[in-house]
Design a protein that fits this description.
The chain is an alpha+beta fold. It is about 40% helix and about 20% strand. It has four helices and three strands; from the N terminus they run H-H-E-E-H-E-H. Strands 1-2-3 form a three-stranded mixed beta sheet. The two termini are about 15 Å apart.
Length: about 110
């Protein structure tokens, strides 16, 4: 499963949006890998659910699964802080909403 790429391929989205969506997935993955050792990364797009909302002002609505042993002995809040720190300015501009599951390798295997 390739997360965002599967999501893009399965929808009738315009080419420009498809490129933007794949670009943001690649950017997120790169920023995370620049900050920590990632075992698995998957991101899905839920922006389409929010396009008709009155307050939607652009930016992607994304959900990610991030697997890394750097999350060992870290609380949920600490794990999320690690991810938000790694994403930096992406959270201020390209991403409007970002939900995530942050798991260690063993937690991922135990699911």
């Amino acid at each position: 499963e390739d997360g965002i790429r599967d999501s893009v391929a399965s929808r009738g989205l315009g080419d420009v949006y498809k490129r933007q969506l794949m670009d943001i997935g690649d950017k997120i993955e790169q920023e995370l890998k620049n900050s920590m050792k990632i075992e698995k990364f998957e991101v899905k797009d839920f922006t389409g659910r929010h396009l008709n909302h009155e307050q939607h002002d652009g930016g992607f609505h994304l959900e990610a699964v991030i697997v890394s042993d750097e999350f060992l002995e870290q609380s949920l809040v600490e794990r999320h802080k690690m991810v938000y720190t790694a994403l930096g300015d992406l959270m201020k501009h390209e991403i409007h909403a970002f939900s995530m599951k942050t798991l260690t390798i063993q937690e991922w295997k135990d699911q």
